[in-house]
Amino acid sequence: MSMNVGREVREMRKTRRLTVRQLADRVAISVSLLEKIENGSRQASSGLIAALARALGVGPDRLTGQPYINGAEAEDRVQAVIPDLRRILLTYDNPDDLAVAPRPLPVLAAEMDTIAQMRQDGRYVELAPLLPGLLEELTHTALAGWGNSRVAYWWLARGYRAANSLSHKLGYHDLSLTAVERTHWAADKSGDPLMQVTAAYLRAGAMLRMGALASARRILEGLEQEVERLAPEAAMSGAQMAVQGAILLKLAVLEARAQRPEAAWQRLAEARAAAGFLGGDVDHYEMSFGPSNVRIHQVSMLIEHGDTEQALARLREWGTEQDAAEWELPADLAAERSSHHHIDVAVARLTEGDRDGALADLLAARASSPAHTRYHPTVRSTASTLVRLDRGQNDRLIQFARWVGI
């Protein structure tokens, strides 16, 4: 099914008897920009979709049309786990009996490590069938106190984080919010302060997606201070620095969406300094922080501000460091992070009138992380616009659009 965010915005606005100017004023954008979004000639960023949804009194998924069900065999396998996940998240402290005893904790931990890597690479079709059973085994192990129950809760928190990502990426946002709360619960039981910070970071991220910017800011600023407090004599470990850096990047995105550019660029500068101390990209607590992610966020923030020309200029500038036309992402970067970057850049290229370049970035996103790309609402809206503008029956575009499900 084709989903046009602009059409949904226009219909919801008319239902609520709002003029274009009234809605534009509510979200602090120009009338011309809102008109372009409604007629499909301009893509709305994730932050703007959240703001429009809040102004219209609906969730962002109402405007994006999630969840998407394409009917393909691979998608059917992913969707089939959703009822099990709902049951497991509901019975988190009073689970159903297991038919057989859980496997030893080291075995469960090793499998959860594999699932965590799948999550970062956006391999949801492979991840989904494995997750419910593993969550059940870890739940029984943690509640029964077999071995070190705190360690079991630590691994369970990572499992709930995977459940959050899976639910969010598929568009089941209510289930995603429940998974975030369960991550909090398990992290508190684990006794690991950085895992607790990570859980609160996920909650702030959910608030950001829903447009609750002030609440998210308070949480993130408190987390930044908490990480500072955890550092002995102000000497941060690599893990602490990575977690704090991820918090700073999230704050930068938040301030950009809050139309506070000076605060946004200050937070980005702080994150860049932290990344410099690390000396490279790291993955502590699944945070994927480092110089590459700082650059990715810088490009994303420029696009969020509508400064697409500058975003593409930065890519060309960084490309000269590699003797390349544009900056090339590190090969070992988390696949979903790479995919997200290409999705953002596709929007920038389309805005600048480079339709072939936009399609090339969408295809690069699919090559990095197919499932993440297929379920991303921005991919659908960008591909829909490309199809509408296409006059030459571009076979690659048509095939991509069919693959996405529009």
Helix content: over 70%
- Mean pLDDT comes to 90
Kindly, what is the distance between the CA atoms of the first and last residues, rounded to a whole number of angstroms? 5 Å
The residue ranges in which pLDDT falls below 50 over 5 or more consecutive positions are: none
Rg measurement, Å: 21 Å
Q: Specify the structural class.
A: mainly alpha
> What overall geometry do the principal axes of the alpha carbons give?
globular
* Main sheet overview: none
* Distinct helical segment count: 22
Report a brief summary of the structure.
Helix content is 73%, strand content 0%.
Describe this structure in words.
With 406 residues, the protein is mainly alpha-helical. Among the domains are: 60 residues, 434 Repressor (Amino-terminal Domain) (Orthogonal Bundle), CATH 1.10.260; 124 residues, no CATH class. Helix 1 packs parallel to helix 4 and helix 15 runs antiparallel to helix 16.
Which features would summarize this protein structure in a list?
406 residues; mainly alpha; 22 helices; globular
Helix-strand blueprint:
Layout: H1 5-15, H2 20-27, H3 31-39, H4 46-56, H5 60-64, H6 73-79, H7 82-90, H8 105-120, H9 124-144, H10 149-170, H11 173-190, H12 193-209, H13 213-230, H14 238-257, H15 261-278, H16 291-304, H17 308-319, H18 335-351, H19 355-368, H20 370-374, H21 377-389, H22 395-404
